[in-house]
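Form 7-S
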Amino acid sequence: MTVVEDTGVEAEDAPGGAVQPRQLIVTVYGLYARGQGGWLSVASVVRLMADLDVDAQAVRSSISRLKRRGLLVAEKRGGAAGYTLSPAGQEILAEGDARIFGRRRATARDGWLVVVFSVPETVREKRYRLRTELTRLGFGTVTPGVWIAPGHLQGEAAEVLERLELTDHAEVFLGEHVAFGEPVHNIARWWDLPALDQLYTEFLDRYRPVEQRSASGGPAEAFTDYVEMVTRWRRLPYADPGLPLELLPADWKGLQAQDLFARLREKLAGPAGEHVSAILGAGAPRANAARQQ
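Output:
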């Protein structure tokens, strides 16, 4: 499986900043292409991206980059040039669905997953990749070689170690915190909670006004708002692994942001799918949008 960072799937900028065209294209493929066998014509992508204020040249450049990174594969259908999701792309988007639309909040009963590793200098590039992958999964850092996360991430952590062929250099433990130090204070040391709070605050500031005006907009506006919102939100379920609420500050903005995302998704997904269906001239995208609700 291709590393997510290598495909440009995750947003590289904070939700308050501009997102890259390729990130928007990945969202469009994730929401709508899989209902059409993973394929979209270049012409249809250009037209959809125009609604997001991305010009044709930027679309073609971004698609080429995603192709080089192994997410898309060029394919003609019915004489039309287009791109289909690669097997790696399908897998990455399926993983993203679970994180974005099926997010799990940990409880103290889940226990803590601890990954301990010592990667030799002969494969030090894998050490960097492992740290990058664990960060992507939402792990916190206890020490440089000891990383921690809620227990429900054990399957994803094991997959990373197996894929990087580092199982001989790591150990994985699942258990409870039993002594020395208060978990609520440890959480604040192992994760950058102020940075996460800022990301959630920026999301709320940007999309509360969208919720207020969403009832008056049409399908095209719903499409623009929905694709941009999913693209900006996509980073957050990776940065925040779903830490137990009882260990987070009482005014944790993550709950408000998650509720806002769910409400806007319910309002926008249907009309956005109608807009895509009208452009593509088929009902499949609308059905796929309904599946994502």
